[in-house]
Design a protein that fits this description.
- With 195 residues, the protein is mainly alpha-helical.
- The chain folds into two domains: 126 residues, Growth Hormone, Chain: A; 28 residues, no CATH class.
- The protein is built from nine helices and no strands.
- It starts with a helix and ends with a helix.
Length: 195
């Protein structure tokens, strides 16, 4: 999903793609909380995961667009420092919510936070550049290039196989004194005089 969200951000702008990812995540969270069976929960969780993938790509892309290169590492460092806290704290808080309320609230808790994030993102990201809205993807060219690659690899192995056979026969190795002579000028003179 990373390349797809990245391309959507390039085409339609980071703001639109990021807000769409938040909306998809929220829709997936709400549907997960309303799931009636395991099949629905798995499907809705996949939908929520598609939105979550867009959130990660969106945050990194927005940092790249809004922050000068000199300061980007600071912001990305803060984001990466928060991730372990979220990965450890999230399951603990989710377990607490599940034990004291219901498993459904582990998904519903995303809704108020996500709606606030959606509104704040829509307002604050207004100054980001708009996307081009059009892309030219050369599908026949891409498919043809993909089909050629295995053939190129097969052809390129033949010279390597022939060289391996020559090396095994001892015909392709440089003589040891000539190899050392290449690195030592005194030995190079001696090799030229003697040979």
């Amino acid at each position: 999903m990373v390349p797809i969200w990245g391309k959507l951000g390039d085409l339609y702008g980071r703001r639109i793609s990021f807000v769409a990812a938040i909306a998809l995540f929220l829709i997936g969270s709400a549907l997960c909380g309303m799931a009636h069976n395991m099949g629905e929960l798995v499907g809705f969780r996949a939908l929520q995961g598609l939105g979550a993938g867009g959130l990660i790509v969106g945050v990194l892309s927005i940092i790249g667009d809004m922050i000068p290169p000199r300061d980007r590492s600071k912001y990305q460092g803060v984001m990466m420092a928060v991730m372990p806290v979220a990965m450890i704290g999230g399951p603990l808080i989710g377990g607490f919510i599940t034990d004291h309320l219901s498993w459904r609230w582990a998904f519903y808790v995303n809704l108020p936070l996500g709606i606030v994030t959606l509104v704040v993102s829509w307002i604050t990201l207004a100054r980001l550049p708009k996307g081009k809205g059009a892309a030219r993807i050369l599908w026949p060219h891409r498919l043809r290039r993909g089909a050629e690659r295995p053939c190129r690899r097969a052809r390129s192995r033949k010279p390597h196989a022939a060289r391996a056979r020559r090396q095994a026969a001892g015909a392709d190795f440089p003589a040891p004194e000539l190899d050392r002579a290449a690195h030592d000028p005194a030995r190079a003179r001696a090799a030229r005089i003697s040979g």
